[in-house]
Amino acid sequence: MWYDNFREQVINLQSKTERDQLEEFLKKQNLSLDRDIEYTVALFDGDKLAAAGSFSGRVLKCIAVDEEYKNMGLSSKIVTHLVNEAYSRGRTHLFIYTKPENKAIFSELGFYSIAEVPAKVVLMENRPDGIKKYLEEIARDNGDKKDSAAVIVNCNPFTLGHRYLIEYAASRCQRLHVFVLWEDKSSFPAEIRYRLVKEGIQHLTNVVLHKGKDYIISDATFPSYFIKEYQELVETHARLDLEIFTRHIAPSLDINRRFVGEEPYCKVTSAYNAIMQEILPIQGIDVQVVPRMVNDGHPISASRVRELIREGKLNEVKELVPETTYKFLLSPEAESIKKHIQSNSQRH
Q1: Is 105 helix (H, G, I), strand (E, B) or coil?
Q2: H helices within the chain, ranges in order?
Q3: Where in the chain do CATH 3.40.50.620 domains reside?
Q4: Residue ranges of the alpha helices (H) in 295-342?
Q5: Which residues touch 207 (CB under 8 Å, ≥6 apart)?
Q6: CATH code of the domain occupying 2-128
Q7: Among candidates 212, 219, 134, which has minimal Cα distance to 180?
Q8: What fold does the segment set 131-342 form as a domain?
Q9: Residue 143: predicted pLDDT
Q10: pLDDT tens, position by position, 136-168
């Protein structure tokens, strides 16, 4: 085809020259380079960068075409390259966050809409039945209809505070669905976080534990490249995540209540909780904010546990976590995680 005359180039993100050129190109398209990009391909017309696209994990992002080259099929060429590259890495279930005005473009390229925040963002996937299959999976053990509630947690790692929240919620409904966030942007990998929760709540017979997979979106994975203001970013993430929850997840499990722990530390979580209290009741879902469990006058938090691990004070961690979590932290399996925390000052 005619656009084969364009030169295709994989951008070396470690090269300051190439990265600067990419960032300048995206800036002209009113976009920024998302912080976790791992692969980028670009199309050049001579020396001019005409189009580019990237991915991180299984999410395609930062896809843009210069105004001069609009409606020339370059988006299709970029997305096709990214999909083929992702497939070659074993990533076949792919997602795109994009502006709603681009929805038609990606629909033509085989992506299907999951949820949308009008005028802000739409989340799409490359499987027509992706979320349907997830809903079937989580509803498998639902049995007969019961008074159901939900708790969504990250548990990085699972603390006495998390256990208290889940116990409190479980005592106030017939069935409690607990979802563990599934992105691997946390110090403790998803499978381990899930396992620690499972071990820590075995005594609760009315709790159903779920892997959040791709449809419970955390602030660590929500893209920021097309949203300029931080507050707008936080709000858009919350509204998209809650749209998926109210439109898909809650109806499939007959959920009419959601329990959350109060958040004295994290501004992002606090803002999310405020938006949740605004949106969910309109959809017939009650929101109950549960006071945090306190130790020595301070709310128990996973961030405090990680801080103590960073300082090598495991004896103090014992006061903040269930015995199952503490045993894991003493095990050889936890050594690499503890070393990572001790060498890393990041919040998660």
Answers
A1: helix
A2: 16-28, 74-88, 103-108, 130-139, 160-170, 190-200, 230-244, 250-253, 267-279, 302-310, 314-317, 323-330, 335-342
A3: 131-342
A4: 302-310, 314-317, 323-330, 335-342
A5: 166, 170, 175, 176, 177, 178, 201
A6: 3.40.630.30
A7: 212
A8: Rossmann fold (3.40.50)
A9: 65
A10: 999 986 666 678 999 999 999 999 999 999 999
